[in-house]
Amino acid sequence: MATSHEVSTKPDAIKLDAESAKKLQGIAIGVAVVGVILAAAGYVTDPHRLAFSYLTGFLWITTIALGGLFFVIIQHLTKAGWSVAPRRHMEWLSGALPACALLFLPIVLFSHDIYHHWMSAEAAHDEILQKKAGYLNPTFFYVRAAIYFGIWIFLASYFAGRSREQDKSGDRKLTEKMQNLAPPATLLFGLSITFAGFDWLMSLDPHWYSTIFGVYVFAGAAVSSLSMLALINIGLQRAGLLHKISNVEHRHDIGKLLFGFIVFWAYIGFSQFILIWYANIPEETLFYRHRWEGNWKVVSMVLLFGHFVIPFLVLLSRHAKRHYTVLGGAAVWMLVMHYLDLYWLVMPTLDHHGAHFSWIDLGGLLAPVGVAAVLIARLAASGHLYPIKDPRLPEAAAVQNI
Amino acid sequence: MKADLLAEFETPEALLAAVEELYRRGYRVLDAFTPYPVHGLEQALRLPRSKLPWLVLPFALGGGGGCYGLQAYLNGWDYPLDVGGRPPHSAPSFVPISFEMMVLATALMGVLIFFALCKLPELHHPIFEVEGFAGASQDRFWLGIDGRDPALKRGTTEALLASLGASRVAWTGETAKAAETSEAVKKPTEAAEEVPGAVTKEEPS
Predict the structure, then answer these.
(1) Whose CA, among A99, A199, A292, A399, lies 20 to 30 Å from B110?
(2) A residues 270-329 closer than 8 Å to B (CB)
(3) Contact B40 A274 (CB under 8 A)
(4) Which residues of A touch B92 (CB under 8 A)?
(5) Number of alpha helices (DSSP H) and beta strands (DSSP E) in chain B
């Protein structure tokens, strides 16, 4: 039930045409090559800075992939009917998680540099860190990372694998299987992303702690992955590949979810801030003090307005969420803001008293993004554009917003 | 919308088809009563989008902004208190209350404006006297044509509705006459049960 200007009798495309598939993979490989060269140059110039830049870039693409996994799990958990096509696109994003595991290896190599506050020899003399050593020690840190990636890769490949199997057989039991795994998968996902947030981001300043921090990282993952989903949907619709199973109504629904998670991010971010601000305990307020020094103050304010106030006002209207350009523009904007959000979490550890943006940051971003994009592009180019034998296809095509 | 001539349909598809056909024949003031939202019905009836969001927006801004202003005036200027050495005008502490007041003003005014737009409360409406109309909240799909509709013609429109598959056709406020023209007259016991049911069910709300 598309609106009049999108009505077409042509069936949806099942696969990406060879030319677009080649182009997509070409772009991904191009980004990867440029990124790796830039990162290598950055390593030669300033390995210390590259380590932190790389962590930011690695987290940007990993949170997007994790947001994709979250979306897939939640659609099965709620037995959602509208999201059959978007689910496949999120399966592509979650398919980048094996690449993310590989991309974690440089973090392991850089770990004594990035996490020197608690990994260095001085930490042994720090009374607070001595108490935390049972959790915050290098060995357990690496073991935990292996567990997180084990959980994520298992879940991502289970859901994407069963979904691809259904493309061939059309077996309804596969849908039931995925639904059965969804509840424990939700728990595993929630715990693993929370502790990954603690390990990879919060431990940058090992004295500081915030119990809501994992939820904050998750909120960013949801916002960024939904932005990416909006762009994939818009791309496929504008190319005329999908117009029945994915139309203006689905675009509207994705817009609503994106809008909702933008508010959620602000709600969690403010909840973290207000408690620390109100309690006014030095070891807690230090985190915000670092991010209020020099031009970090500007970055903080840009996040407040750019990650919440402006997109909130832009996406408030129904018309905006259904509009190609407005939703697409907002999605690109939110992906930039998500990078800035991670930059704001990571880089004050390196750049005290003010932000110093550098070309090395670009290398740290493009190298992991390019490598993961090669995998995502391969999945998009080789598989079907939507689950072609999903039992909920008729329901998904008939979605309508009142 | 007064819905002077009513017609009952068994399925949402029949109702949708009837609405489209009536529109094609020049009927313009149509309404529908269904137990659940029927896909495509709003478009078929050519209903405009609700004005409610725009009417509520000023109250959202006023509730949030006004509450922030009140706190800023009271705590920051009129009667400053030193709370843990913070400046009298501390924006973070005003945010939760401003947010809550924005939600409260929006929700309350949303309900009140909605009632005003629907001209509620209305304690009695002749539409509920029509036999079988209680089915509109159960398993029947009713179509209403306003008396001011330019195409509405007593005598011919009833026949048109019947030809479109209406199982009952009735004028509001003319229960006795409706009974003659509708099929309900063949099932007096069922109709007799439904009418009191409609009154007792609708009145308490």
Answers:
(1) A399
(2) 270, 273-274, 277-278, 280
(3) no
(4) 273-274, 277-278
(5) 7, 4
H-helix or E-strand spanning residue A158: helix A138-169
Which residues of chain A are within 8 Å of residue B93 when distances are taken between CB atoms? 274, 278
Which is it for the CA torsion B183, B186, B188, B194, positive or negative?
Answer: negative
For B85, name the nearest residue in chain A, comparing CA atoms only: A280
Average pLDDT over residues A44-58: 96
Which among B37, B95, B96 has the least Cβ separation from residue A402?
A: B37
Confidence tier at B1 by pLDDT (50, 70, 90): low
| Residues of B in Cβ contact (< 8 Å) with A400 | 39-40
Dihedrals phi, psi of B152, to nearest 5 degrees = -70, 125
Is-contact A6 A322, C-beta < 8 A? no
User: What DSSP string runs through A386-401?
Assistant: S-TT-TTHHHHHT---
Whether pLDDT at B124 is above 50: yes
Closest CA to A118 of A173, A198, A223, A211: A198
Report CB contact under 8 Å: B39, A1: yes
Where residue B174 falls among pLDDT bands split at 50, 70, 90? confident
Structure tokens at B203: 């009145």
Closest CA to A69 of A242, A212, A168, A196: A196
Q: How far apart are CA B97 and CA B91, in angstroms?
A: 11
Is the ipTM here above 0.90? no
3-class DSSP assignment, residue B171: strand
**CA separation (Å) from B200 to B32, B172, B196?**
22, 19, 6
Element of type H or E holding B32: strand B30-33
Mutate which of B13, B34, B38, B43 to disrupt the A interface (most A C-beta within 10 Å)?
B43
Instruction: With a cut of 60, say whether residue B181 has pLDDT above it.
Output: no
Q: What is the pLDDT of residue B84?
A: 85
Pairing of strands B141-145, B168-171: unpaired
List of E strands, A139-240:
none
Identity of residue A96: A
Contact assignment for B93 to A278 by CB distance below 8 Å: yes
Tokens of A285: 């307020």
Residues belonging to chain B? 205
